[in-house]
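Quick question: what would this complex look like in 3D?
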Amino acid sequence: DIQMTQSPSTLSASVGDRVTITCRASQSINSCLAWYQQKPGKAPKLLIYKASSLESGVPSRFSGSGSGTEFTLTISSLQPDDFATYYCQQYNGYSPPYTFGQGTKLEIK
Amino acid sequence: EVQVVESGGGLVQPGGSLRLSCAASGFTFSSYRMNWVRQAPGKGLEWLSYISRGGGFIYYADSVKGRFTVSRDNAKNSLYLQMNSLRAEDTAVYYCARGRIDSSSRDDGFDIWGQGTMVTVSS
C-alpha cells in the first residue's frame, strides 16, 4: 500500500504568515492527492483535490501543488480561522486504499 | 442541503458488535461512491472502507478486513457499517464520507462528511 508522510507534524506561525506543508508519497500517485482541514470536534473539510484544484467555496489563499511523490499545501496569508490540523490523502489508481497522511497541526505562534 | 448523518455509535464490550448507519440527503445517493473513515481519540484519520455506487465493488483497510462489512441501500439513501469482533483499538469517531467525482467519473477526494458517531469499545 502507498504510505503518505507529512511534514512538519506541528507548525507554529502568526497571522499574516505564508506557510507551506509538505506531503510525500511512497510511490508515484500522479496528481491523485487531496488536502483537508480539520478543526477540533469537527469533520474534515475538503480544500484541494487533484493536487492543485481548489474546492468550491475555499478561500483563494489556499493553494496546492506537486505531482508524482511530492506535494505542498500553501496558505498565502494566515488568517485566525486557518489554525487547524491539515491532512493529505492519496487516491492513486482510483482504487482503495485511500491513505491519509498523519496530519500537520498548525498552531498560533 | 447536501448532507450525510451518521448514527448508531455507542459503548460496546470487546468482542461485541455494532451497526453504524449513514443517512444521505440533498443529492442522488446512488450516483456516488461512499466511504467510512475513523479517527481514534487524539489521532489522525484512517480510511476504513469504500463501496461503489451499486455496491458491487467493496474495499477495506487491513485493520478491519474480515471484521467489518460495508453495505448500502440506495432505495433508502443509506450506508451501513456492520462491525463485529470489536477491539479496544476500534474506539474512534466514525465518519461517513461521499466520494467526489471528477469529469471522468473517477474518485477525486471526499467532499461531503458527516459529523461522525463515536464508538467506544470497553468493558
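Answer marked as accepted. Chain B has a mean pLDDT of 97.
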